[in-house]
Structure formats: C-alpha cells, structure tokens
Design brief:
single chain, 265 residues, mainly beta, twelve-stranded mixed sheet, six-stranded antiparallel sheet, 1 helix, globular
C-alpha cells in the first residue's frame, strides 16, 4: 500500500455504529470557492503521471484528457437528483459517482461523491463530511502519526487543512491503484472531483470521465484557427480552443454535442 508523503492533520476517531454509515464530524469544507484546480493543460502535454486525467467541478463542468491527446472541456447539465457515473471500471469493480442537487437559481451542483472500491468498501463525501459503510464491523483506522493517512478497507484517504483550520482537500487512493482529489465549497454547498493518478484504471473504464481517460479514446485534428475536429466512437464534432472556467487553453465542446458523443462510446 502506498503511503501519501505529506504531513497532514488527523481526522476524527474510529467510527462506532455497527453496520451503519459512519460520519467524520471534523470535515469542514472551506467557505471560499476553490481557487485552484489540477493543472492539466489543454496542450499535448501528458497528465501529471504520464497518463490520462479528468475533473468534475461545481455546477458541474468537466475536463478530460487521454494519455496522447489534449484536454477536452464541456458543461454537463443533469436533472436534480441525477446520479452521474464519473468513473466505472468493470475489470476492477471500482465505481465513482456523484449526485446532482438543484438550487433556487435553477443551477445544479454536485453535492455528494460516492466511491465503491474493488474490496467492497463504500466511502461517501458530502458537504457535512466523510461517511463509510460496506464492511460490517470494520472501522476507519487511526490517522498515521506522520502522514495523517487513514484507511477503510482498500480505500486510503488523507485530509489537508490550511493554517487557519479550513479544509483544503481530501486525497483518496484505492490500494495499489488510482488517486483522486475531492474539494468542498461550503458557501456553494458543492464538491469538486479530480483524477490525479490513473494507475490501475483499465482501458475498459466508462463514465463521464472514465471513458475519456483511456488510451485512444478520442483524437483531435487541429484545424489551425483555434478550432478542431474531435473524433470518438465513429463520431466527429467541432471544438473551439479557449479558456474554460479554471482550465486554460482547452478544447471546448458544446454540451449537446458531447452528449451525442458519449452516447456513441
């Protein structure tokens, strides 16, 4: 098992309720909007570990990147209460989904993210904290004295806190597998999700993010005028190079076109 090489604040003590979801009340998302997102440029540069990358943010909007292609960006507007499959890997049984919640202004935000691990552990993040279930009497381990890392089954996670006591992010790693980042925004009551390391994710992965971080999942033909043709699943659509939310220099695809493309993958 990898141990995250960071010195971080400890989480709450081991959970108590048998066969019920457990809650970590020390989780306190920052009241400020996240000011940074993983730096996956919209160029031909690989992801941070030489593989694919992806992220789902706030309202929600997405960035995805295959190992050999530039990043794609797009909005996705699900109905309130929709469970979105972010990444599903049938070979490893890893599944990550998010639930959309509506606001009075008509916008929809991700307000909970759910992990189901190959070993049967379930971990859920929402604006109130971290909840675990699925392993009967098993409890979350105590925080590692140096790194702050904790484990529940084959899910390892650590929290990073700012000097003023605000939660910055949670890093989640599947044992001997991929690494993910969760950020919370208390003011907007929303969450953000990013794939930091794709190790162990198979080329059969599916989902809004999972289907695009695979090798050769799509190809970009640059037209030379800040437009490009993106081909995937036998379908070609147009994209425009521009800044997209917090991602710079990204190939942006119309959300309706992206829905058609995803349906053909």
């Amino acid at each position: 098992m990898k141990i995250f090489a960071l010195t971080l604040a400890a989480l709450a003590s081991a959970q108590k309720n048998k066969n019920k979801k457990n809650k970590n009340n020390n989780y306190a998302p920052t009241t400020d909007a996240p000011t940074t997102e993983p730096n996956y440029p919209g160029t031909d540069a690989p992801g941070p570990y030489g593989g694919g990358a992806g992220g789902a943010y706030g309202d929600p909007h997405f960035m995805v990147k295959s190992p050999s292609q530039s990043a794609l960006c797009f909005d996705f507007n699900p109905s309130e209460g929709t469970d979105m499959n972010l990444l599903v890997d049938p070979l490893t049984a890893l599944s990550i989904s998010a639930t959309a919640k509506g606001r009075d202004n008509g916008k929809v935000f991700m307000d909970s993210i759910h992990f189901a691990s190959p070993g049967g552990a379930h971990l859920e993040f929402d604006i109130d904290g971290v909840h675990v279930a699925g392993l009967g009497d098993a409890v979350v381990t105590s925080a590692h004295p140096l790194t702050g890392a904790q484990s529940y089954g084959d899910i390892n996670f650590i929290e990073k806190w700012s000097v003023d006591g605000l939660h910055e992010h949670t890093k989640v790693q599947i044992e001997d597998g991929p690494v993910f980042i969760i950020k919370g925004n208390l003011k907007k009551e929303s969450l953000s999700f990013a794939v930091e390391d794709t190790e162990g994710i198979s080329n059969r992965s599916r989902g809004i993010i999972g289907q695009f971080i695979r090798d050769d999942s799509y190809f970009i033909a640059d037209n030379g005028d800040d437009t490009a043709t993106v081909t995937s699943g036998g379908m070609s659509i147009e994209a425009t190079r521009e800044n997209f939310h917090h991602t710079s220099n990204c190939w942006v695809i119309n959300d309706e076109d992206m829905l058609f493309m995803m349906a053909n993958l």
